[in-house]
Amino acid sequence: MKIKTLLVMFFTTFATIASAEGIDQKINETVGPVLNVFTNLIFSTVPFFGNDVPWVVIWLVVAASFFTIYFKFINLRSFRHGFALMRGKYNYTDAPGEVTHFQALTTALSGTVGLGNIAGVATAVSLGGAGATFWMVVCGFLGMSSKFVECTLGVKYRDILPNGHVHGGPMRYLTKGFAEKGMGGFGKVLAVVFAIMCIGGSFGGGNMFQVNQALAQIVSVSGDDSFLANNGWVFGVVVAALVGITIIGGIKSIGKVTSKLVPFMGIIYVVAGLIVILMNASHVPAAFGAIIDGAFSTQSAFGGLVGVLIVCFQRAAFSNEAGIGSASIAHSAVKTDHPVTEGLVALYEPFIDTVVVCNITALVIGVAGMIPEAPLPGQGLALTTAA
Known about the structure:
α7 (about 115-130) runs antiparallel to α14 (about 305-320) and α7 packs across α17 (about 350-365). The chain is mainly alpha-helical. Helix content is about 70%, strand content about 5%. The model has no long low-confidence stretch (mean pLDDT about 80). The strands form two sheets. Strands 1-2 form a two-stranded antiparallel sheet. The chain has helices at about 1-20, 25-40, 55-70, 75, 80-85, 100-110, 115-130, 130-155, 170-180, 185-220, 230-245, 250-280, 285-295, 305-320, 325-330, 340-345, 350-365, 380-385; strands spanning about 45-50, 50-55, 160, 165. It is built from 18 helices and four strands.
């Protein structure tokens, strides 16, 4: 009875608030200033060859390059073995954990394969020309090494509770790893900072941006005078409810849903993209030529080669989340006695996300002749949709 009363009170209150004029605008005015504070801090820039580069992008690229060299190009050497692990060739069903290698991979992919591959690629192409695609692939290749490291650490330092539930991720390996080096206090501080930033990122890039762009796509089809155009909160509540139904059951529930939904979603997008490309097959050589020429030509790149690299690494980092740490939380729940096995499976996340899906998007835009001749800021989703 109490639950029914609470639900009635909630929906009555929400309906009253929603009936007020401009609720979407009020939400923006309330949340916007808070987000701007974090954005200005995290994405503060440093001068680099005449360009202002967010320091966090430089750090991600340097770390990914270091991991690639230190582990002797693990992203190439273990590619085949990672695929064997992913498809279940080696059975670890009796090992501690909650999900299979494949379910852990699709759970992580569910948070990366999406708008970063659609709007993100178009944004990079809009600002950096056709050659931006090449550098996004390079960033994805380097990001594979970052994923290998963070997901291996996630499993190595995870905690398995008596009931079988798993707790893992940067919060654990920062604390335990630094403690092994005699810097336990420093590790705890980093773990707390990560947890706070991860929560903030989940609200912003993980939820708000995704649902905002999904709504924008629906409005672009239904028209600016449609119901949802002026009542975006309704769309947000529906999406939140659907996501809530999935995640309330824990990692096992999430793994079951994503292991079916993510491959289905990915296959539909890739097949649809290939259909567009094949229907315009005569333009494919020119599209590839523009990508290669633009990748190394400072003349065709908007703002110079360094400027294009900055845009591409930003978009690629947002697309595959390599080095951010969030993926290792999902991967740490895998059933295995050997942490490195999940690191090898995680290699496929940036490959699928950035190398495969992003290339499909870029080629669709290219063969459709939609690559702009001058920078077009803010044309991400609209450009891909038009193509």
